[in-house]
Amino acid sequence: VREYAGDTFFDDNLWTYYGLFDNLTNGDVIYVDRDTAMNGGLTYVSGQSTAIIRVDNYTTVPFNFKRNTVRITSNDFYDQGSLWIFDAIHLPFGCSVWPAWWSKATTSPYTTIGEIDIIENINLAQTNQMALHTTPGCFHTSAPAQPGASGADPDCSTPSGCLVSDLDPRSWGQNFAAAGGGIFATQFDFTGIYIWFWSRADVPATLLPSAQVTPLDISQWGPPTASYLAATCNISQFFTPQQLVLNIDLCVTRRAGVPSIYQSTCGNEPPNDPTNPVSSQNPRIPACYADNVVGPGSRYDNAYFEINHIRTYTTVVASTATPASANLPNVGVIGNQPSANDAARTLPVPSVVAWIIRAITSLISHGPSSSTRAIEFGPIKHYLLSCFHIMSYLCIMDLWRAEVEEEDYVAPTGFRST
Questions:
Q1: Nearest-CA neighbor of 350 among 303, 401, 396?
Q2: Which pLDDT belongs to residue 210?
Q3: What pLDDT was estimated at residue 71?
Q4: What is the pLDDT of residue 108?
Q5: Buried b (16+ CB within 10 A) or exposed e, 215-248
Q6: Which residue among 37, 113, 165, 277 is buried most deeply as judged by most CB within 10 Å?
């Protein structure tokens, strides 16, 4: 459906920049607009054609001010029956840093109509964490072979959502970068929501740079790192079409900035600006905002995404089947390329029906030869012609659609790039 990559990654028609302070989670940031981000080096395409999204790491921020960063949301919406590939070299990390690659419904609060957290964690965490956020009634049930560790609470309507932690230390932070990055794949399907992660050395053959973009075969991907089965969370009920979001927040009083959470991994880190009113206290109590956001920007040298590409796919035919016997998502070939004779094979149906329409139209238009009967038939003729043309059009489209779907069908969750 779409590839976000290279020089066109940040094209105007692809993303919307938030352009406002964080009025949703009360983070200590300002999400800048497009012009500020591009002119200030917070979003740009590198010399290696990778997309960079970062926190301002060059400005000295005074006490009681916020730091500039970025949040972008896709202009495209992706419904059930879609797949999102996220290939990155570097993920943001560091004390106070809260980055995320996630999807949301169109309005806030997103939990009323579904949110999928694919890449997310805070401060100096060791591994990635995935979650769903919904209204009450959705619970996490994983496949038996799920490599990720399920959280203690399966209720996806809690503030933390229903969590799954990746056990691979290469899924986050410095270890992610040192391993050359990796790929995250998310399948948003009627049968469930499934998230895979592969470190660079483990990327499946179908996702290697040398592989064709489409069709994409996911049958050899193995069990998802996190799986949320529709058996206990009706995807159609709890999720509407999703927009894709990339953002980097700082602190937030209920996330990275929670004193106990912050101090558990960053309590021993020296303050960025030891002269500000909070960090200069004796004895000093470690504080997320005062010790990090305030002062020089070099504290955020590692707070950036570096992305090779994002690719999105959609199904040929909507999946209505239940998961396979191993409780894994329905898998198969993702997409099939239109053949050279696609146009030719669809022409006969419209052509034949069109000939019939012309014949019947001619008969109705001429009507009876009697002038008296013609006067009686005239007012009805135009009405009949209009109805007949409308019905004929609907029949043609139905026949054409049936033929194309029958020949293009690949697998219950086959995906194609269109």
A1: 396
A2: 84
A3: 98
A4: 61
A5: bbbbeebebbbbbbbbebbebeebbbbbbbbbbb
A6: 37
Which two structure tokens, joined as six digits, stand for 380? 């009805």
The continuous run of DSSP H or E covering 185 comes out as strand 182-189
**Is residue 119 classed exposed, middle or buried when 0-12, 13-18 and 19+ CB atoms within 10 A define those classes?**
buried
Residue type, 114: G
Instruction: List, in sequence order, the alpha helices (H) in 126-194.
Output: 173-178
Sheet holding 71-74, edge to edge: 15-17, 71-74, 243-250, 97-104, 115-120, 129-133, 162-165, 149-150
DSSP letters of 377-407?
HHHHHHHHHHHHHHHHHHHHHHHHHHHHHHH
What six digits make up the tokens of 416?
A: 């194609």
CA distance 187 to 190: 10
* DSSP type of residue 62: P
Per-residue model confidence (pLDDT) at position 110: 60
In a 3-state reduction of DSSP, which class is residue 11? coil
Name the pTM for this structure. Answer: 0.77
3-state DSSP of 99-140:
EEEEEECCCCCHHHCCEEEEEECCCCCCCCEEEEECCCCCEC
Distance of alpha carbon 26 from alpha carbon 253, whole angstroms: 7
Cα 75 to its chain centre, rounded Å, is 11
The widest CA-to-CA distance across the chain, in whole angstroms, is 109
Helix (H) or strand (E) holding 88: strand 82-90
Residue in the block written with tokens 């591009």: 38
Contacts of 300 (CB under 8 A, 6+ apart): 54, 55, 56, 57, 67, 94, 97
**Residue of 280, 282, 298 whose CA lies nearest to 290:** 280
- CB 46, CB 6: distance < 8 Å: no
The 10 Å Cβ neighbour count of residue 100 is 18
Residues 396 and 355: their CA atoms lie apart, in Å, by 12
**342 in helix, strand or coil?**
helix
Q: Give me the residues of the chain with pLDDT under 50, please.
A: 316-418
CA distance 186 to 183: 10
CA pseudo-torsion sign 352, 354, 355, 357: positive
pLDDT at 413 (0 to 100) = 34
